[in-house]
Specification:
- 23% of the residues lie in helices and 29% in strands.
- By secondary structure, it is an alpha/beta fold.
- The strands form two sheets. Strands 1, 2, 6, 7, 8, 9, 10, 11 and 12 form a nine-stranded mixed beta sheet that branches. The chain has a three-stranded mixed beta sheet with strand order 4-3-5, with no helix packed on it.
- It has helices at 6-12, 31-46, 114-130, 217-232; strands at 20-28, 53-58, 62-65, 81-84, 91-94, 98-104, 137-139, 142-148, 162-173, 176-184, 204-205, 235-237.
- The chain contains four helices and twelve strands; from the N terminus they run H-E-H-E-E-E-E-E-H-E-E-E-E-E-H-E.
- It starts with 5 loop residues before the first helix and ends with a strand.
- The radius of gyration is 17 Å and the shape is globular.
């Protein structure tokens, strides 16, 4: 499935680059371990010692606090572990049934433009959803990808309800990215109630299964991989991890 905006492909899929390593970890990966491994991989990529990497994981239930997180948005601080993280954004939830893709790409070899990079990540999610006949949309005032919910009551201002289906939070070091995106495949949605997700109070959270798609994680992974390759270029299987 091609991304909606072909500019993202021109900006980020570099001809002649080594294929991006594509790694999937089984089971639940503890968050501190993931951060340590991401930082080590990013250092190796920046030093030219390793090819770029996209690493897919699931985490145990937890909340993460980005650099813009506000204390009042942590509604239930004792519900799950809370991890401070250097990525952009506010509070997010991670847990089983949510596919987290950690994206370690060298933007010096692609395009040194953070805004365009975030837009390209959004394009990956939108194309993944489109392959399953789900319309994901960007919002200028809200990072992430959203779906309209005509099946829900309208908002107080009369506008249509919308739910967030995927979050994005990135960090760059030496122009190598880490952290990435989280796509809600089939997480326990009431776990999001312990925070104000990404600081947005007026809208809810959804998942592919909540939208009526009984999809398995491995199928979501295949569709996500196709979308990543259309935006960022070829991948190769990486069995380590």
């Amino acid at each position: 499935m091609k991304p909606r905006d072909t500019l993202e492909t021109r900006f980020f899929a570099q001809a002649g680059s080594p294929p991006i390593r594509w790694r999937i970890s089984d089971g639940l990966t503890p968050y501190p371990d993931a951060v340590a491994r991401m930082e080590a991989e990013a250092e190796r990529i920046a030093a030219g010692e390793a090819d770029e990497l996209i690493w897919l994981v699931e985490h145990p239930p937890m909340y993460t606090a980005g650099t813009s997180a506000r204390a009042e948005d942590l509604v239930e601080p004792d519900r799950f572990e809370v991890h401070a993280t250097g990525r952009g954004g506010e509070y997010t939830y991670h847990g089983p049934g949510q596919r987290v893709a950690y994206v370690m790409l060298d933007l010096k070899r692609r395009r040194q433009d953070v805004r365009a990079f975030v837009s390209a990540m959004e394009a990956v999610i939108i194309a993944t959803l489109e392959s399953m006949n789900v319309t994901g949309e960007r919002r200028e005032d809200r990072v992430g990808v959203w779906v309209r919910r005509p099946d829900k009551p309208p908002l107080a201002d009369g506008s249509m309800a919308e739910d967030k289906i995927a979050a994005i939070g990135i960090r760059l070091r030496k122009w190598v990215s880490f952290h990435g995106l989280a796509l809600n495949v089939d997480p326990q949605l009431d776990h999001f109630s312990g925070i104000v997700p990404c600081g947005v109070r007026a809208h809810g959270v959804t998942s592919l299964v909540d939208l009526g798609l009984p999809i398995q994680m491995h199928e979501a992974d295949m569709r996500l991989r196709d979308a990543f390759e259309n935006v960022f270029g070829p991948t190769r299987d990486d069995r380590a991890g």
